[in-house]
Amino acid sequence: MTGSAAGSTDYDQFTVAYLQDVSGDLSGDGQPETVVMLGCTPQPSNFSVFEVQVFTASHTLLAELPSPATLKPPNAPLPPEYDAHMPMTIQGGILSYRMLFYTATDTHASGPSQPQTVQWRWNGQQFSRVG
Predict the structure, then answer these.
(1) Which residue ranges make up each domain of the chain?
(2) Phi-psi region of 111 (alpha: psi -120 to 50; beta: other; left: phi over 0)
(3) What is the rounded distance in angstroms from the CA atom of residue 68 to the CA atom of residue 1?
(4) 3-state SS of the chain?
(5) What is the Cα–Cα distance from 20 to 122, expressed in whole angstroms?
(6) What is the pLDDT of residues 118-127, one digit of tens each?
(7) Who has greater pLDDT, 56 or 41?
(8) Under the phi-then-psi rule, with left for phi > 0, alpha for psi from -120 to 50, and beta for the rest, what region is 9?
(9) In degrees rounded to 5, what are phi and psi of residue 124?
């Protein structure tokens, strides 16, 4: 997509890519939801934005996971990033995936160095972090 088509004057184009998905019952209704991870890279830039969307068995959007910015520790220079190379899993109604967190000494150039598994559970209205 071009930057102007997206309403942006800062970027020439946006590349949106499917990264991975996983299916399983997250809502407790006995039907599998599908969780899809997408990545968006504006150009020119040196960053990507990730989004995780959850769809019902009837292919309607149930919810988006909260932004990684909501998980940023107070002493970290930047919010964590999804580790798109590690698979997401669903077990016992809990969605788990690995994120990479920035430590106080990490920089944008070096990238985040602290892996951590993050888990989410559907509470009937939104996803809440487990643990």
Answers:
(1) 13-130
(2) left
(3) 24
(4) CECCCCCCCCCCEEEEEEEEEEEECCCCCCCCEEEEEEEEEEECCCCCEEEEEEECCCCCEEEECCCHHHHCCCCCCCCCEECCCCCCEEECCEEEEEEEECCCCCCCCCCCCEEEEEEEEECCCCEEEEC
(5) 20
(6) 999 999 999 9
(7) 56
(8) alpha
(9) 100, -20
Taking the C-alpha atoms of 56, 122, 68 and 89 in order, what is their torsion angle to the nearest 10 degrees?
-70
Cα separation, 64 vs 128, whole angstroms: 11
Distance, CA of 66 to chain centre: 8
Which amino acid makes up residue 130?
A: V
Q: State the residue for tokens 């106080």.
A: 104
What is the sign, positive or negative, of the torsion defined by CA atoms of 46, 36, 1, 67?
negative
Query: Token digits for 73?
Result: 């520790």
Summarize the confidence of residues 34-52 as an average pLDDT: 81
- Would you call the peptide bond into 44 cis, given omega within 30 degrees of 0 as the criterion? yes
pLDDT category of residue 40 using cuts at 50, 70 and 90: confident
pTM for the structure as a whole: 0.84
